[in-house]
Design goal:
The protein has no helices and eleven strands. The protein is an all-beta fold and 118 residues long. Strand 4 and strand 5 form a beta hairpin. The N and C termini lie far apart (37 Å).
Length: 118
């Protein structure tokens, strides 16, 4: 099982980014994918996930209304579109997988840095 997050960068406040999580070794029919972020000096925060099989989308209040999680089964990729970015969105963003039957996200990719600054 492997996951790799990409798409981060420097963006101005109000701007947009699309993060990608490319994965291998499992199917989205049997795994949920979550997006997490960690800012310096802060705890890791779960911000969005898409459930296995039916692909229900869940968002934390901190990103709700500004973000959309989606998946492309053919490309083995999950996306997080983030709009109206704020300086407080600055963090390292990670994607992770939770296999059906597991209680935790046990597979993590390397993070991608998102910096929102003018």
């Amino acid at each position: 099982v492997q996951l790799q997050a990409s798409g981060g960068g420097l963006v101005q406040p109000g701007g947009s980014l699309r993060l990608s999580c490319a994965f291998s070794g499992f199917s989205l029919n049997y795994a949920a994918i979550g997006w997490f972020r960690q800012a310096p000096g802060k705890e890791r925060e779960g911000i969005s996930c898409i459930t296995a099989s039916i692909g229900r989308q869940i968002y934390a209040d901190s990103v709700k209304g500004r973000s959309t999680i989606s998946r492309d089964n053919a490309k083995n990729t999950v996306y997080l579109q983030m709009n109206s970015l704020k300086p407080e969105d600055t963090a390292v963003y990670y994607c992770a997988a939770k296999m059906r039957g597991d209680s935790e996200y046990n597979y993590w990719g390397q993070g991608t840095q998102v910096t929102v600054s003018s």
